[in-house]
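Supplementary Note 3. Input sequence used for the single-chain structure prediction.
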Amino acid sequence: MVKNNIIILGIESSCDDTSASILKNEAILSNVVAGQNIHEQYGGVVPELASRAHQQNILPVIDVAIKKAGIQLEDIDAIAFTNGPGLLGSLLVGTSFAKALSLGLQIPMVTVNHMHGHVLAHFIDDNEKSKPNFPFLCLTVSGGHTQIVLVRDYLDMEVVGTTRDDAAGEAFDKTAKLLGLPYPGGPLIDKYAQLGNPNAFQFTKPNLPDFEYSFSGLKTNVLQFLQKNTSKNKDFIKDNLNDICASLQKTIIDILFDKLILAAQHYNIQEIAIAGGVSANSGLRKRLEEEGIKNQWKTHIPKFEYCTDNAAMIAIAGRYQYLAGNFADQRTTANARLKI
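The predicted structure, written as discrete structure tokens, is reproduced below.
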């Protein structure tokens, strides 16, 4: 029999953020995230360095989360942790810690798909945000994934559209690198885009069937565009940075919404949500609101703190696994290529 007032410890370590969260029922009591600045000098996440930093961060992050929540370690009823997808070394740190703590406290644990967590972040208790009604479509966009997910229930999801190559977040970061912007470049493109003309330059869009995405061609197009114009004017990027960023951001968002609109029409669904790190992008959020009005959608946008990698989303997803009795055992391991 499941007791009332379930307290779950969520652990997230799929990439370069170590996070712990305490969830009581559907309310977040604490959500602590430790980032890793060491990757900035390399222009991207270095897996070995990420896993080492997780080893250093995981114990203090969990300790702070418990103290902020005002509970004792013994109050925790279950542990939810990300077992994939992500960087294998990073995932193993969280997985190993969760298994050891589960043994030590003699409490159950549940595994959570990282992308499942992004989708279910919408169900965290928040008086300022409405929760989606089933079924709904969720556009999940991050550095590693771009997917349109048909969500029928908390534990019933189907990926109906995905990218053939690069993810949208990767397209932001890699084109930002071409512009000479530091890592992570996606937020900087968003910042400069707000000062530029989104129609100043035209970039390529893929022509793919159904709800498939591709961003590798755009990346190549941007490279060729910059090479051509900087050969004529070495200050071209500096002189046009805001307009380039605005045009690039508009192109990526257009690509995302062309397919999302088609999917909404195909499945006759009016409940539309976004999730993942790129859902923090101001242009994407604004476009969803505009399309919502235009298409009479009921739209759902997560809070900023639940967009990027965090353990609150792992805890809420873990709650539904717990209620369903989907417990993991000590044979559980990380799966870097885990699918929804």
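The mean pLDDT is 95. The chain is about 40% helix and 20% strand.
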